[in-house]
């Protein structure tokens, strides 16, 4: 979409990666409840991402939703549906990033470690470089941790073709979950747009993920 808000924010990101600060940290005073740029961003909770800074957003311009991995979970969908239908956002942006912790485990491995499996705990400790303390108990919630598909790697591994592909897989899965949800319109006068990106924590730059495309092996 020409001259979209997402394109404007990508321009801001280029300036940010070049060392320019666009986000203004001061309190802006009273503002309306609806995001001024009519955009919602779903991003990972990683401490190295400051979404306002990397997109050049000001307070009041966007909804920012964060969780481990920037995954399109049921709760993220809940927020996006409310964001669009009640608060008039028209563009959704998904942001994953390099060196993500979601690349370092599988759901089954983490569950087994938490439940008390010694071998799983040892593998998790090796991956994270910290002592993994098992809880020794089973639990029904969360039902999934949404680890990224593919072979796990050490925590904070440098970017390469393999882990970038794994990140792109999950971005596309998230985009698909949004675009195929019955309550998120993609056609007509109330349609939203969705674009996904991988943020490089070492350079500060965003790289767009093409859609549709591969989403990785099941399981």
Low-confidence runs: none
CATH superfamily of the largest domain: Carbonic anhydrase
Helix content: 25-40%
For the biggest sheet, the summary is: 5 strands, mixed
- Secondary-structure-based class equals alpha/beta
Q: Briefly, what CATH class of the largest domain? A: Alpha Beta
Architecture per CATH nomenclature, i.e. the level-2 architecture of the largest domain = 3-Layer(aba) Sandwich
CATH topology of the largest domain: Beta-carbonic Anhydrase, Chain A
What count of domains describes the coordinates? 2
Strand order of the largest sheet: 2-1-3-4-5
Count of alpha/pi helices? 6
What is the CA-atom radius of gyration, in angstroms? 18 Å
Overall 3D shape: globular
Work out the number of β strands: 5
Termini separation comes to 34 Å
Share in β-strands: 5-15%
Give the overall average pLDDT. Answer: 96
Helices and strands, in order, run as HEHEHEHHHEE
